[in-house]
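Async update (no meeting this week)

Hi team, since we skipped the sync, here's where things stand on the single-chain job. The sequence we agreed to prioritize is pasted below, unchanged from the tracker. I ran it this morning and attached the output directly underneath so nobody has to dig for it. Comments welcome in thread, and please keep replies under the output.
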Amino acid sequence: MVTSGGDSQGYTAAANHSSRPSTGNMTTYAPTADRRRSLLVRTSYDEEADVYDDGCLRVEHDNYHVTCKGKALRLTRTEFLLVSHLVRKVERIVQSEELWRNVWGDTKPLNAESLHVFMYRLRQKFEPFGIRVENMINVGYRLSLAACCHQEPS
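Output:
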């Protein structure tokens, strides 16, 4: 039996069971009003074209295409689906089980170790651009763009 600390404590998530991420409300959350204002100014989400673009990170959900500061990133399908789901809830915690179901559906039970490996790989790919994939222990993950526009890629 595979368990995740947060999921065994009764955390539940509304999940999209299809292989393609659903379009969702891209409302951003930030702890301060100034941070919220800066995110809302920078963030653009075109639901008709299903594209997220904040000037630093661009995710074209229909085309499986991700760019950071104009540079295309090579992501596997699984990595893309994880990013696609995280970017729909940017700066908000997404529960591990929700991420798992979005990518693998209900056919496989949550494997926290496998999910952690994929998130580690995403961290390595986004780190040069100042984008952080944060692990919220026993809960899930959060995509943080705070330093993205202030750091040059190496």
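Quick observations from my side:
The helical segments are 5-8, 33-42, 77-87, 96-104, 112-126.
The two ends are 42 Å apart (CA to CA).
Reply here if anything looks off.
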